[in-house]
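Question thread 4412

I'm putting together a teaching handout and wanted feedback from people who do this every day. The idea is simple: show students a protein as raw sequence, then show them the C-alpha cells that encode its fold, then repeat with a second protein so they can compare. Below is the first pair exactly as I plan to print it.
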Amino acid sequence: MCLNNYSKKTKKYKHITYAERTMIERWYNRDSKTNKEIADLLNKCERTIRREIKRGLTIIKDSEWRDIENYSATIAEQKYRFNLTGKGGDLILDTEPKLVKHIENEIKVNKKSPEVIVVELPSFNFDIKINPRTIRNAIKAGTVFDLTTKDLTYDKKYKNKNKEKKVSIKVPAEKSIEHRPKEANDRSVYGHWEGDCVIGKRKGSGPVLLTFTERVTREEIIIKIKGKKAEYVAKALNTLERKLGKRFYTKFKTITFDNGSEFLDYEGLEKACRRKGKRFSVYYAHPYCSGERGTNENANRMIRRWIPKGTDIRTISVEFIKKIQDWINNYPRKIFDYKSTNMVLLEI
C-alpha cells in the first residue's frame, strides 16, 4: 500500500503504533509535511503529532557532516516502551483468557455474582487474585467480556404515568411492623419471614410467584399461584401447612408483608387449616418502605436473574421454579462467610 494514500478509520484515544511512527518519519523527514498535514493523514489530533515528533527528535549528521534534527521512529518507539514500564503490568483479565471464559460462564449459565466467583476461583484451580470490582468495571467497559451490565444488574424501574391510582386500605395499628417481636427485628430466632409476590407481565391477570424469605438464614420458598389475589395466597399457605404438618408451626412464627391488596386479609392468612386458632402472626411494613422487607426484596432480585421482568409466568414450570429455589438456598453468601443457606440451616 502506498504510504501517501494511507487511510485509517477514526479511533479516539488510541496510542500511535510503530507502523504509524515509520510513516511520520517519512512524511516529516523526507516530505517535509507539517504537523497539521500529518495529523490529518493519521486522523489524529495535531497536538498528539506535535508531542510524538518531540519524543522522537534526534541529531544526525548529513552528507556534509553537518548536524541536522530529524525524527526517528525507532527512538520514539523506545521511549514509548520505556514509559509504559511506569504504569505497571498488564491487567489479569487481558492475560488470562481461560479466566475470562470461566467468569462469563459462571455469570451467564450459573447466574453468580463477581464476589462469589472470586471466592470460588481456587476450587476451579485458578491461582489468581482479582477484585470483584475489576470484573464489574470490565463488564461495564465492554472491552473484555462478552457480557453487558444487564447480565449483572436489573432494568431501572420506570413509573407508569397512565397507571390508575389505587386507594390504600389501612391495616390495624397492632399489625404494623412496629409491633413485630424483638426476636424478629434483631434476627435472633429462626422462623420470622418476609413475603411478597413476583409478577410477570404487568398487563392483565395471570400466575405470579409467591415468595417467602426467612430473616435469619435467608431460606427461600417459592410457590406459583394462579393470581395476585388474597384467596390464592391463603390457599398456597394452606397447602404449605398441610405439606409440612407439625413442623409448619415451628418453622413459621411471623410473616411480614407489604401493603398489597393480596396480603391485607390478615385474618384469613393467619387462620390455621389443620388446627384451631392462628398458625402465625402477620405484620405489615410501612407504605412505600420496601427496605423494611429488604431480605425478601434481595431474594426477589436473585429470582429475576432467572425470570426477567416481563416474562410470562404461565410458561414457567414448577420444576424450573424448584430449581431456582434450590439454587438460591445453595448460593454462597458473603454475609455467612460464603456458606449457603442450607449449610447454615444444618448449624441451627
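The second pair follows. I'd like the answer to focus on this one:
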Amino acid sequence: MIQQSYTLPTMKILQIKENNNYVISKYDKYVKAENYEMYFNTKSGFELIRGINGNDDPFILELPSLLDIGIMGHCKNHCEFCYQGSTHEDHMTLDIFKNIIDQVFHHTNQVALGGRGDPNHHPQFKEIIEYCIKNSIVPNYTTSGIDLSDEQIEISKQCGAVAVSDYGKPFTYNSIKRLQDAGIKTNIHYLFSRKSAHNALTFLHGHNPWRENVDLEKLNAVVFLLFKPQGRGVTLSHSHIPSEDQLKMFSNLAVKNKAQTKIGMDSCMVNHIKIPKPLENFMTTCEAGRYSAYITPRGNLLPCSFIDQFYHQLNKSPYQIKVSWRLNYTFQTFRKILEEDPNTCPCGFNYKY
C-alpha cells in the first residue's frame, strides 16, 4: 500500500548532510513516500529526492515529478524537423487538463507544456497557467516566439521558465528580448544536429554565436536537445543526425565548458556525455517512465513524447494516472530497458555511426 504525505506550501529551510557535504536550500513542497522523500522549491526550481528508511535513492517514483503535457493538438508552423509530424488534432480541453492536475498535484512539481505548436497560443492558456499555480505546480513551456503577444508575456510571468526554440529568425531574438525585459526566466532551446553543431561548439568554447541578437548575461540557460529522426524529421536523417566526432566534441566541451551562461540538455543528449565522477550525482540519463511522463492532447499517457504506440487512455478515475504509471506494460518495458542499460534509449533512438 502506497502511503504519501503532502505538505502544503510554506517556505522552510532545508539543511541536510549528503556525501559529507551540506545541502542548504529553501523548499515549500514536501512529499514523503515509503522509500523516499522529495523537497521542492516552487520559486527557484530546486528539487532533492533521496531514499529513506534504509533505501537507496529511488529508481522509480510513485508518480512523475515532471509531467510533459501536450496541450496543443496542431500547429501552423510546419517545421521540417518537427518530431510531432503533421497530425492535426483538437487542442487539449481545459477539463482534461484540470483532471490531470487534480490527480497528480500532491506529487508532481513541474509541468512542461508542449504538443504540436506554441502553448502560449492555446485558447485557454491563461486558465491553464493559473490552475497550475493554484495547485502548487510550476508551469513551464517552449515557444517558437512567433506572434508572441504582450498578454501572453504577462501571463508567462507566473511560469518557472520559458524556452524559445532557436530558429535563428528575427522573431526568435525579438521574443527572447521581450521575455527577458519582462523579468521572465528565459532559456534558448537549441536543436543539436549535424547542421547546427558548429555554433553549439562555438558557444561552449565561450563565444556568443548569436552576437548582438542575444544578451547572454540576461539569459538563464541554453538547453541542448538532440535531433531525433521522427515525424517530419525522418526525411532529414542523413543531413541532421550528428556525427560521432561532433558528439564526442560536445561531450568533451560540455563538462568543462567556457559558456557565458548556464547550459542544460535533454536526457537524450546526456546519453552521449561521458560524465566525470564529480558530476555523477548532478546528472541523470533517461527519466522516462521513472521520474517523468508525457500526456497527449487527447489525454493518452506515455512514458515519453517520442513513443507513439502502446498508449494508455486516461479517464475520470481519480487514481487512473497512478495505476497506469505503475502497471501499464509500456511503462514497465521502459523501466526494464533502463535498468539493464541507463544509457540507452527505450524509444529506439540509439544511433549507429
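Top answer:
Good format. For the second protein you could add a caption like this: The longest strand covers residues 12-18. The domain at 66-289 is CATH 3.20.20.70 (TIM Barrel).
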